[in-house]
Design a protein that fits this description.
Blueprint lengths: L2 H12 L3 H20 L10 H21 L10 H30 L3
Helix pairs in contact: 2-4, 3-4
Length: 111
């Protein structure tokens, strides 16, 4: 299969989820931009919410990601399945940290 053929398949796979992708980009950018205008940087203290919420998202997503694909955790059998599940869960936890860290900074920041 050619590169353009692969990109075409990926494009048609992503089309039903474009609204969710756009929503996630907005949810990522708005807190980042607002917090950066108020002096936020990644090494700033975010607060307890940015420490406890991403690991909670990681654990919950291990159980909820298979439900998203109309599957169950019992079908995650091989090491490849586990790597994919843990990778998706880690990605969601990282996204949660990137969203909630600036929000917690804004909430705890003294203006």
């Amino acid at each position: 299969m050619t590169i353009t053929g692969t990109l075409t398949v990926l494009w048609y796979s992503a089309q039903p989820w474009l609204w969710l992708i756009a929503l996630m980009v907005v949810l990522f950018l708005v807190p980042q931009v607002i917090a950066r205008l108020k002096g936020y940087h990644f090494s700033a203290k975010g607060g307890k919410g940015s420490k406890y919420f991403p690991p909670l998202i990681f654990i919950l997503s291990i159980f909820l990601v298979p439900l998203h694909t109309d599957s169950t955790l019992a079908y995650v059998n091989t090491w490849v399945d586990w790597i994919a599940l843990l990778g998706a869960s880690f990605g969601l936890a990282l996204y949660a940290w990137l969203v909630f860290h600036p929000i917690c900074y804004l909430r705890n920041h003294k203006a």
